[in-house]
Specification:
349 residues, three-stranded antiparallel beta sheet, 9 helices
Length: 349
């Protein structure tokens, strides 16, 4: 004989009331305004990066936009279905009670908290492509039904990526799960009172990896993505560009020949004359020289002829015909072959 659990029956009563209240509020139409505002903000930042030739930053923002657009499409699809579908009948208390009891067979630990209006279950270790992310707490708050804080996903033994402290799973950021295609199934399970199915769907979502919608891909989990060569590198091999702020590996980062500032290859200009690299501050766009020649080499090439011509006053003057050869000074040295001439001239004739 199955033992009756009074606490779970009380929980079933309160959950039924919360679901019924949410069913009544379902007639209100909530547009995904916040998701749209995020898209507008990202689009503005992307255009700003393009205007400033921050190409790596623009590419990163473009990828973020692609992910957010897919989420927005999912929100619109869910809204469309909710407008066309009829509200389901509220689940029976017996169904809710049996669902609460069934959780014990599927999860490591189950806990009800009436004070916080939460139902918590614990998963076993979540492993994605040999990446062990440890167990997770799945916390459903029936008192916040329909809000973004309704479901919380907490890592019990966080194995965060090297580049982000707010991510504990490729699809979990700040304890919020990106539900993706599972969003509709989760909502349907709750509306019908299938609490055990609800948590099973959440667990299945955690066990599914989609690199296209991941906050951080598994290949980048243990390293940082270089915006220059697109390789995954360690933190010790990563440099921050002092021009655009993007991070690049040591092979894709160089020092400006004039000021020594570290910049990525996208921000540096290479001089075709001296072959040195210069940052935007030492080679600004408003004084862009011709033929990819740096300002220093340009100034040297445009020097006036008078500055480069030889000094004519230092040339040796050649005596012309009829002009007396100046006698040597007394201080001038006497060459050896002249000594004989001097002796002959001194002899009597």
């Amino acid at each position: 004989m199955v033992t009756f659990n009074r606490k779970r029956w009380r929980a079933a009563l309160r959950i039924a009331a919360a679901l019924e209240n949410n069913r009544t509020l379902a007639t209100r139409i909530d547009l995904p305004q916040r998701a749209w505002d995020n898209l507008v903000m990202l689009a503005h930042q992307h255009q700003l990066a393009l205007d400033n030739d921050w190409l790596q930053a623009a590419e990163s923002l473009r990828q973020d936009l692609a992910i957010r657009v897919r989420w927005f499409e999912s929100d619109l699809a869910a809204l469309r279905k909710s407008l066309s579908a009829e509200a389901p009948e509220p689940p029976a208390l017996r169904t809710l009670y049996e669902e609460l009891c069934a959780l014990d067979d599927e999860f490591e630990d189950v806990e009800l908290d009436f004070k916080t209006t939460t139902l918590r279950v614990q998963t076993s270790d979540i492993v994605l492509e040999d990446l062990n992310l440890g167990p997770f707490d799945l916390i459903w708050n029936w008192g916040r039904r329909g809000s973004s804080a309704e479901l919380q996903v907490d890592a019990l033994e966080p194995h965060r990526p090297a580049s982000r402290d707010d991510i504990t799973h490729p699809h979990v950021m700040d304890s919020i799960l990106c539900e993706g295609d599972a969003s509709r199934s989760l909502e349907q399970a709750l509306a019908e009172g299938r609490l055990c199915d609800y948590f099973l769907i959440v667990r299945q979502t955690l066990q599914t990896y989609n690199p296209q919608s991941a906050y951080v891909t598994i290949s980048d989990w243990s390293g940082y993505r270089c915006r220059g060569c697109d390789d995954s590198v360690s933190a010790d091999d990563l440099c921050s560009c002092q021009s655009c702020g993007e991070e690049a590996c040591s092979d894709c980062s160089l020092s400006c020949a004039q000021c020594g500032r570290t910049s990525c290859r996208s921000c540096l200009q290479n001089c075709s004359d001296c072959l040195e690299d210069f940052c935007p501050r030492c080679w600004p766009d408003d004084v862009q020289p011709q033929d990819s020649v740096c300002p220093n080499c340009r100034v040297a090439a445009e020097a006036t002829p008078e500055e480069n011509a030889p000094d004519e006053t230092n040339e040796l003057e050649i005596p012309t015909h009829g002009t007396a050869t100046p006698s040597p000074d007394a201080d001038d040295p006497v060459h050896a072959h002249r000594l004989g001439e001097a002796a002959l001239a001194a002899r009597p004739g």
